[in-house]
Amino acid sequence: MARPCFWFLELVIRSELLLNMNTLASPPAISKAAILPARPSGTPGALRINLARSNQPERSRIEHMKSPIKLLLVDDHPVVRRGISSCLAREEHLKIVGEAADGLEAIRKAKELLPDIILMDIDMPHMNGLAVTEVLRRELPHIKVLILSMHSNTDYVVSIIQSGARGYILKAASTEELVKAIEIVESGESFFSPDVARVALNQFVRGPGEGPNSSQLTNREREVLVQISEGLSNKEIANHLGVGVRTVETHRERIMRKLNIHSVAGLTKFAISKGLITLREEANGKQ
Fold it and tell me: Of 157, 188, 205, which closes a domain?
């Protein structure tokens, strides 16, 4: 079954509003002249609206979308990648050209495959999704990034916007919403899941809250904070990140100074409160 033509429905709605009607008529087929006949009613003058010029940008976008949108899936969980691939398999205008399981592989595949859009997870080994997005913004600015994650807290939304991503959709979203997000981002606009947008709007209305905020930290400091909260030692963190122990100690000192928190217990509580880790992850890290 063909996907509904959202741009055409929007034009019909706008036309109906101009005609001051209370209900919508069934949209007629578009003729070569792109004329939308007036609804037969008591409207004086049997008004007609010429859509030829108004739908020109949309027509250009549709013609551009005749070639499939090339997608790169980036997530460290194979089952998630398979699930996304399965959900998008029936969409003829979408083509998955590759997959990546970590941040470094994502950058390499992006340079190799040159996708139109990257569906990017946040929490990944070697380099997180936000750090990858910042690299791509500098080196491959024509590639659009759509963050696909489970987090909906305000700190992540702010960080995502700052990283240069074009949108943010929750993994709990429906296939229809994911496809819509891809189409909107490809058109050059931004897309945020309603739940995410609501969180950001609420934070904006309330204004900045009291106490430290994880947006004060760099991406690397946030990575170190997460691993400290998971119970890893400086040496274990250094091995995991491929840096020296002294570098980790410096990051730890800066984190504590920026957040004004000077204990591992306090850092762990902060990380949990901000959604950087869950209670289950924190418990597993201490086992």
Answer: 205
User: Phi and psi (nearest 5°) for 36?
Assistant: -105, 110
Domain identity same for 124 and 242: no
For the entire predicted model, the pTM comes to 0.54
**257 to each of 81, 114, 262, how far by Cα in Å?**
38, 41, 8
Q: Is-contact 107 132, C-beta < 8 A? A: yes
Reported as a single tens digit per residue, the pLDDT across 168-209 is 998 888 999 999 999 999 999 999 888 777 766 665 555 555
Residue that terminates a domain, selected from 205, 234, 262: 205
DSSP string, 50-99: E-TTTTHHHHHHHHHTTSPEEEEEE-S-HHHHHHHHHHHTT-TTEEEEEE
What total number of domains does the chain contain?
2
Is 251 a member of any domain?
yes
Within a domain: residue 29? no
CATH number, position 267: 1.10.10.10
